[in-house]
Amino acid sequence: MPSERAKSSGLRIPRPIRAEPVPLPFSLMVISDEQPELVKRVARALDGCTGIRVAVQLRRKHVEAAQLLELAEQLRALTHERGALLFINERVDVAVTVRADGVHLPQRALPVPRVRELFPENAWVGRSCHSAEELRAAEREGADYAVLSPVHAVPGKGRALGIDNFGALTNETKLPIVALGGLSPADIAPLWARGARGFAVIRGVLSDLDPRRASAHFAASLRALGEPTD
């Protein structure tokens, strides 16, 4: 169940200002792609996320700014209502406007320190990584977490890391690592054992014919680990 912090207004999960990385405020991140009826699909996915901490990342590469903002506002209202977090992919301006809980930066996006100049200091800033070098760079620049991908083969996303290599790479940084790339619920336990502390899915939930059922399977795997709810 969502904590009281997750029910308050504004940036609801403050980022503690510490020298060392802090635990993630979510265990499952549901990322959008170009799915139709996105808000309805996200609502269905959240229906299945009982007993876990969940974040929604709005990622739309091929829409006008006004349309992206409209989607972000709708998802902000939905995530407030459901006690979930909202992250915006790359568009810091949109994230600030809707008071998102965080922003996620691809490799070629703005540097983390520049984003922090624009975003409230208690917001979460993550970075996409694909190698040991990128993980170390994300830590040096002050990211709060790193998404490491692709675990499994995904069209257009380069060579798959594989579960064992993923585990070796988690030792390259103190940052919390979020696994991404062709994940299924069966991957949760072995990736957790190898250092993943969060799991991100794109096609695995929102592109499923039944987003509620798909997210419920991931939630069950996370609850089996004793996933904290606040």
Describe the structure.
By secondary structure, this protein is α/β, with parallel strands linked by helices. The protein has a domain of 143 residues: TIM Barrel (Alpha-Beta Barrel). The chain has 8 helices and 8 strands, in the order βαβαβαβαβαβαβαβα. The chain has an 8-stranded parallel beta barrel, surrounded by 6 helices. Helix 2 links the parallel strand 2 and strand 3. The N and C termini lie close together (8 Å). The N terminus is likely disordered.
Structure summarized in a few sentences:
This protein is 34% helix and 17% strand.
Write the layout of secondary structure elements.
Elements (H helix, E strand, L loop, with lengths): L27 E4 L6 H10 L6 E5 L6 H18 L2 E5 L2 H7 L3 E4 L6 H7 L5 E6 L2 H9 L4 E4 L14 H7 L7 E4 L7 H6 L2 E6 L9 H14 L6
Parallel strand pairs: 1-2, 1-8, 2-3, 3-4, 4-5, 5-6, 6-7, 7-8
Helix pairs in contact: 1-2, 1-8, 2-3
Observed structural traits:
230 residues; 34% helix; 8 strands; eight-stranded parallel barrel; disordered N terminus; TIM Barrel; single chain
